[in-house]
Design goal:
The protein is built from eight helices and seven strands. The protein is of the alpha/beta class. A seven-stranded parallel β-sheet has the order 1-7-6-2-3-5-4, sandwiched between helices. β4, α5 and β5 form a beta-alpha-beta unit. It is globular and about 60 Å long.
């Protein structure tokens, strides 16, 4: 055995890759995944769209170019979710921590955000997509804030795909906000302290009326949730894909859905005695 082969073999032995929780590229066309049947699909998919900057840096491009390329992937995954009957899609687009990035990168992201909602709102509305922004909309710059509010108002009565876009979002901040709303309700005499339960708390979240997340997908190989939907992810299945977000396409998305369909979900109980997963009625969603 050559020295190079021996080195690789020892590296594989002592530093194994966690392939059991990642998605590997599909190179054999005959091995391409098949979309699971409707009853096996998740009702609510959440995606942490990670890797735009690394995608651009690897090509000698500015990070803003990666975000622009990521927008194309975003468009395709939203269309696929709508085509395949996914009930809700929640996307982590901009966290409260992202404001600490360079002025140039934040400016590019805000420009892309404004351009996206200007160019895509007609198609989304025509497809009956309902847009909800998760996060502090009031803390966004005025042009972006106005575009977000208009998009939510325009699609508020739509009954198709629930498209949730997390902007200026932090999971802990969302939980703190819900606690503050409950405290205010008690102080105003609307509820009693003993009325506070999980349902009352969930009703004060940005995702009120939606089922919890069934499947979380994170691209770029990172394996953490990064302060995204901590309450809603409690029983979510997680799939970590090695590819960078601009390269995430329908094939990879379908493979993640296939991985999810093959999972044995027991919610802490015994198989065959799982809680109901009926989707809430559309008119109950807020």
């Amino acid at each position: 055995m050559s020295l190079d082969k021996l080195t690789r073999a020892l590296g594989d032995m002592f530093n194994p890759k966690p392939r059991y929780i990642t998605v590997t590229p599909v190179t054999d066309k005959s091995a391409e995944p098949v979309l699971p049947p409707p009853q096996a699909l998740p009702r609510h998919v959440a995606i942490i769209m990670d890797g735009n900057g690394r995608w651009a840096t690897g090509r000698g491009l500015p990070r803003s170019a990666g975000h622009a390329a990521g927008t194309e992937a975003l468009r395709e995954i939203i269309r696929a979710s709508d085509d395949w009957g996914i009930g809700a899609l929640s996307l982590y687009a901009f966290s409260t921590e992202n404001w600490s990035r360079s002025k140039e990168e934040v400016g590019a992201l805000m420009g892309l955000l404004l351009k996206y909602f200007t160019s895509e709102i007609d198609e989304l509305d025509e497809k009956n997509v309902r847009i909800t922004i998760l996060g502090d909309v009031d803390g966004m710059p005025e042009p972006q804030r106005d575009a977000l509010v208009r998009a939510m108002q325009r699609t508020a009565k739509n009954t198709g795909l629930r498209l949730n876009i997390a902007l200026n979002y932090g999971g802990r901040a969302e939980l703190t906000r819900a606690a503050r709303l409950l405290a205010q309700a008690v102080r105003d005499g609307e509820i009693e302290p003993e009325d506070i339960d999980e349902d009352a708390f969930a009703a004060r979240l940005y995702t009120a009326g939606l089922p919890d997340v069934d499947l979380l997908i994170r691209t770029s190989g990172e394996m953490r949730t990064s302060n995204f939907l901590p309450w809603q992810l409690t029983y979510a299945e997680m799939v970590f894909d090695d590819c960078l977000w601009p390269d995430f396409d329908r094939t990879r998305y379908m493979k993640c859905l296939s991985v999810y369909a093959g999972r044995d979900r027991r919610f802490g109980g015994v198989k065959g005695q799982m809680p109901s997963t009926d989707t809430p009625d559309k008119e109950d969603a807020t």
